[in-house]
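TASK: fixed-backbone design
INPUT:
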């Protein structure tokens, strides 16, 4: 299986925007935390999180190709099929069947909600927010409007209520707050 270092090199090769790289790191760390919580493979979950938006800058003009181009890019690399499936599932190109598929689908948008919450908090940091704070922002439809509430709420498919999902996600992101500059 491709190493995390090689996967990160791919991210740095294909993504030039700092916020996108931070997003992939946030999704990776939450995916790892979620795998641990669910008793799943942390390496596989993390790899899916790290690579899920590899084609994002290439597909902005044709978003219907998002995810598919990533899988094409990974074709000749030692990336497990379940990781590729999760990448396709997060972009809506296949059913969300596995725990990994379901996890990446709800984790992808929650990172934006958490970052926006941290930035609007007086502390301007992840250290200043908690699940209750993020939950209040979640209920404000205009706040971080791009964070798909329906996708976030699908955390119920993992057996988690929103408060618990926010808690796991925030704590995971706090563990890399320096890299996220939050």
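OUTPUT:
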């Amino acid at each position: 299986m491709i190493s995390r270092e090689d996967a990160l090199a791919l991210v740095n090769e294909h993504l030039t925007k700092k916020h996108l790289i931070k997003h992939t790191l946030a999704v990776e760390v939450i995916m790892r935390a979620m795998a641990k919580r669910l008793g799943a493979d942390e390496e596989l979950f993390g790899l899916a999180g790290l690579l899920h938006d590899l084609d994002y800058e290439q597909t902005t003009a044709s978003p219907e190709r998002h995810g598919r181009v990533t899988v094409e890019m990974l074709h000749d690399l030692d990336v497990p099929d379940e990781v590729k499936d999760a990448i396709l599932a997060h972009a809506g190109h296949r059913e969300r069947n596995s725990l990994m598929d379901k996890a990446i689908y709800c984790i992808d948008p929650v990172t934006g909600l958490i970052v926006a919450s941290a930035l609007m908090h007086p502390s301007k940091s992840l250290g200043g927010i908690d699940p209750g704070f993020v939950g209040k922002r979640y209920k404000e439809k205009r706040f971080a409007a791009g964070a798909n509430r329906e996708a976030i709420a699908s955390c119920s498919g993992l057996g988690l209520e929103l408060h618990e999902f926010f808690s796991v996600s925030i704590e995971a992101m706090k563990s890399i707050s320096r890299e996220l500059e939050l």
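COMMENT: The chain has a mean pLDDT of 97.
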